[in-house]
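Assemble and predict.
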Amino acid sequence: MRSIEAEKITQAVKNMCITANLDLNPDIYCAMEKARETEKSPIGREMLSQLLKNADIAKADRVPICQDTGMAVVFITIGQEVHITGGLLKDAVNEGVRQGYTEGYLRKSVVKDPFLRVNTNDNTPAIIHIDIVEGDELKIDIAPKGAGSENMSKIFMLKPADGIEGAKKAVLDAVEAAGPNPCPPMIIGVGCGGNFEYSAYLAKKALLRPVGSHSDKPHIRQMEEELLEKINRTGIGPQGLGGTTTALAVNVESCETHIACMPVAVNISCHVTRHASCRL
Amino acid sequence: MDIQVKAPLSKKEASALRAGDIVKITGIVYTSRDAAHKRMLEQYEKTGKFPFDMENAVIYYAGPAPAKPGNVIGPAGPTTSYRMDSYAPFLMEHGQTGMIGKGARSKDVIESMKKNKAVYFAATGGAAALISSHIKKSEIIAYEDLGAEAIRRLYVEDFPAIVVIDTEGNNLYETEKAKYRTL
């Protein structure tokens, strides 16, 4: 048994909320630099230049990359030998979000109720996913996500007969329907299998993977590569103003499912796709 | 060469702009997004007035992050415009001539733009830190309780944008996409 103080979790979450919103991940930055060299549209190249310049300003001036600093999505992977002292895990995470969004001058974008819509004023609560694994380590992944791209996400309850081609068509349809709205170039997280809610969870988790990484499963890797190639032929382009850079990555996660099911969840994300990670 | 656009924007000046024009906007624009739009329409229904002069007004769909001490405003990029589609035609009927946002618009909005001689500009989504350097003054003028969604009167200088849909309904999103589509 290993003890971890709740306060340490709060501090880690607070710091990661700030860095994830201020510092564009290097994998995305590099992918946009590369895309600027190959992008065929002059407007598209100009858009990519603006996004790179914006990331430089955010980093240097210590301000958020985008005003939508998102709802904090926090993945906790906790070893079952870990004992948390001095408070509850969820309280510690939410306190970290509260402090990070206040002290980091991040936008408070959470309302208490979908219909009454009164702001909670501290960006809590976070969306928290907890996974218990073996060991005595606690891993925190934080992925604050803006709503422009979240609103373009979709779930498809396909039939097994639709096969992998049906799944690819569903992803492409979601991207075409999103068009310029989610601030392309996009990162696409796809969850295949499980059930209704688990496929959506997998799609979100897929967004944690760095740009340029691939699935270990050969058929899934092929699906990722084919989809990226097709999506970049839609013409949507950077900011939807036309071009050959519509997505920087398609990350697909898959898992077991029911004999009658083939869920495909598509979580669309923008060129900021925030992610920070630490181990305690 | 970038085209200089003054805000407020007259219908005549709006009509001279074409989809694809790269512009720099200088003058007064008002921030308003989901909650403020809803409230403006409710206020008009009750009182017959908007919280600012709608004649020739340019509305920027944005909800800035908090300003750091010493800064005029926090990062303030555009939000996705289609969420304001159900309100925009009413405001254009009452004088609005410019919208700044990002993303596609509905057929109803485009028809209203043609009828009322209004133009839709896109600012670069997610380039909030860059855009904020062109905002020189910011003042909350209505609905302060809405926080980031309160209506702000901004004075902007050389605010970078691109005309996406013009007063004739030409749509840059569609024409540029078609050029690069190889599916």
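Chain B has a mean pLDDT of 97.
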